[in-house]
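Below is a filled-in request sheet from our internal design queue. Each sheet records the structural input a requester submitted and the sequence that came back. We keep these sheets so that new team members can see what a complete request looks like end to end.

REQUESTER: design group, bay 2
PRIORITY: normal
MODE: inverse folding
CHAIN LENGTH: 182
BACKBONE (tokenized):
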């Protein structure tokens, strides 16, 4: 049998006690590295999953829209009493103006105006025409043949505007379109 002295056993015990904490430290370091590695993988996977969930497209927006309208189509609101050399006024119906202008420039483009049977087409402001689209209103701007860029905020004031079309014969008049851009 292997007999060891007490002195030898105590020395071996001291050796084991000094060795044990370093083994524990090595094991803790290894576990900490694995924990950090797993955390990094989970964070990256979470970010990838969040990015892949959805996306939004934000529509274009102009903070300074020059013209607005409360209707899609004009309504005949006034007309001259003469069947020749007359005019017709259009707005959104009742007292709602066809356009509301803010400071800036907008471009009017007419489609099918030449075939409509009207002689001229205007935007008017500040009154009802008397004998023509340019007599009676405070301001008038001719839009045909177009396209025409109009600057609002100076000579052409901001605010409410209506449409006026003039004619010089009794033939029926066809519809046409005015489009605005800026």
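RETURNED SEQUENCE:
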């Amino acid at each position: 049998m292997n007999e060891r002295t007490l002195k030898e056993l105590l020395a071996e015990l001291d050796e084991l006690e000094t060795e044990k904490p370093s083994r524990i430290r090595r094991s803790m370091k290894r576990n900490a590295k694995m924990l950090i590695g797993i955390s990094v993988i989970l964070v990256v996977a979470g970010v990838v999953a969040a990015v892949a969930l959805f996306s939004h497209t934000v529509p274009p927006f102009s903070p300074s829209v020059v013209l607005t309208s409360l209707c899609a189509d004009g309504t005949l609101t006034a007309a001259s009493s003469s069947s020749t050399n007359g005019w017709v006024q259009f707005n959104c119906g009742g007292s709602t103006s066809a356009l509301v202008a803010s400071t800036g420039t907008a471009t009017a483009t007419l489609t099918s105006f030449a075939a409509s049977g009207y002689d001229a087409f205007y935007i008017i402001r500040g009154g009802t025409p008397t004998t023509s689209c340019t007599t009676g209103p405070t301001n008038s701007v001719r839009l045909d043949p177009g396209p025409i860029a109009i600057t609002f905020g100076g000579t052409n004031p901001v605010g409410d505007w209506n449409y006026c079309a003039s004619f010089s014969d009794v033939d029926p008049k066809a519809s046409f379109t005015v489009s605005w851009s800026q």
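SHEET NOTES:
- Residues 70 and 92 are 7 Å apart (CA to CA).
- The longest helix spans residues 6-53.
FILED BY: M.R.
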